[in-house]
Amino acid sequence: VKVGILISGRGSNMQSLVAASQAADTAYTVALVASDKPQAAGLAWAQEQGIATFALSPKGIGKPAYEAAIDQALRDAGVEVIALAGYMRLLSSDFVSRWQGRILNIHPSLLPLYKGLDTHERAIAAGDAKAGCSVHVVTEELDDGEVLGQAEVPILSGDDAAALAARVLVEEHRLYPQILTEFVRR
Ligand code: GRF
């Protein structure tokens, strides 16, 4: 199964998806890494790996034209499933319906808790005992859609958002390839 990954920044989850795709008897290959941020660090990394990349900023051209171009690049690459990995834009309902049920996202909270930004700050402020990450199917609602898998970590006394984020990120890197593999095999 050919997967396209959308990123906006660092791309550490993208790297873990690529690494898993290169293992033996892999269920998917990464056919394209695309970004709304031409300067995204993850894009340079993907290029170095010899993975096809596509970068386009929506600035100046508007969201419909931007999404149409991303859509075309994904289709040209033969992509069947899209994995959002630190992609910081909300996809339009138009785009989502064209890829109905075939877009996954990883979100750094135990959904349905803490949709949106600053998840770790909010979990700590709430006094939660645990945090984690979720892989879910993307719908037109932010961080909504069926949860396919979750991983938990403890929140320790003295944790700040950065410490908690680092602990959760380790689990993200393990969970996302596992759930994507199960998803493309089902
Ligand atoms: C991750 O924590 C992901 O869950 C969130 O944004 C972060 C992206 O990190 N949506 P990276 O770009 O994958 O390193």
TrEMBL record:
Root EC class: transferase
Q: Which reaction does it catalyse?
A: N(1)-(5-phospho-beta-D-ribosyl)glycinamide + (6R)-10-formyltetrahydrofolate = N(2)-formyl-N(1)-(5-phospho-beta-D-ribosyl)glycinamide + (6S)-5,6,7,8-tetrahydrofolate + H(+)
This protein's source sits in the domain of life called Bacteria
Indicate the segments forming the Formyl transferase N-terminal domain, all copies.
2-179
Enzyme Commission number(s) of this protein: 2.1.2.2
Pfam families associated with the record: Formyl_trans_N
One Gene Ontology term, aspect cellular component: cytosol
Q: Point out the coiled-coil segments of this chain.
A: none
Residues annotated as binding (6R)-10-formyltetrahydrofolate are 63, 88-91, 105
What InterPro entries would the database entry show?
Formyl_transf_N (IPR002376), Formyl_transf_N_sf (IPR036477), GART (IPR004607), GART_AS (IPR001555)
Q: Name one GO molecular function term.
A: phosphoribosylglycinamide formyltransferase activity
Q: What functional role does this protein have?
A: Catalyzes the transfer of a formyl group from 10-formyltetrahydrofolate to 5-phospho-ribosyl-glycinamide (GAR), producing 5-phospho-ribosyl-N-formylglycinamide (FGAR) and tetrahydrofolate.
Q: List the PANTHER family hit by this protein, alphabetically.
A: PHOSPHORIBOSYLGLYCINAMIDE FORMYLTRANSFERASE
Q: Which family does it belong to?
A: Belongs to the GART family.
**Name of the protein in its database record:** Phosphoribosylglycinamide formyltransferase
From which organism does this entry originate? Sphingomonas yabuuchiae
Query: What does the record give as the organism's lineage?
Result: Bacteria, Pseudomonadati, Pseudomonadota, Alphaproteobacteria, Sphingomonadales
